[in-house]
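We were asked to recover a plausible sequence for a given structure. The inputs and outputs are reproduced exactly as logged, with field labels preserved.

PROBLEM: sequence recovery
POSITIONS: 167
GIVEN STRUCTURE:
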């Protein structure tokens, strides 16, 4: 990253695409009656929407570059937090959805961590560290959901309330 503005352009795009993909997956699951998975994906879309608002707020007074889709240099084909498109399978089990969510959120964390670890710009380092910290929270929540799913057949109300309160 060459500038804070470029970092914020990436963060905005990453969170836009995560919001959109998880929202699309939630819609598909709801339309097929897979309400548990739809609810999970909707929650992840909402989290990404919060991060998107944060990234946009941080860019408020800056001149953020307008970048075409092919100008972004992601570690993989798509933005790191774009959940696997095969997650639109209407018969997707909740455990599979949780694995997809974990992969997506981990990729977002790894992206921000990589920026933090590889930049010489102290302002970018601080921002990337903050974004990475938010993503690692999501990774930890999903890991807890997976554990709850394995042990109890789903997340406990306390786990869900704790997640909602920490946002």
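RECOVERED SEQUENCE:
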């Amino acid at each position: 990253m060459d500038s804070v503005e470029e970092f914020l352009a990436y963060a905005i795009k990453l969170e836009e695409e995560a919001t959109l993909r998880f929202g699309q997956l939630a819609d598909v699951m709801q339309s097929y009656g897979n309400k548990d998975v739809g609810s999970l994906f909707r929650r992840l879309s909402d989290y990404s929407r919060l991060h998107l608002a944060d990234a946009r707020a941080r860019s408020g007074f800056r001149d953020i570059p307008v970048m075409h889709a092919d100008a972004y240099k992601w570690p993989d084909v798509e933005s790191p937090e774009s959940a696997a498109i095969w997650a639109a399978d209407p018969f997707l089990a909740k455990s599979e959805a949780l694995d997809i969510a974990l992969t997506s959120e981990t990729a977002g964390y790894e992206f921000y961590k990589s920026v933090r670890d590889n930049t010489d710009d102290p302002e970018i380092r601080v921002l990337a560290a903050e974004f990475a910290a938010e993503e690692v929270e999501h990774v930890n929540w999903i890991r807890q959901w997976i554990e709850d799913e394995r042990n109890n057949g789903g997340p406990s109300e306390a786990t869900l309330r704790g997640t909602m309160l920490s946002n």
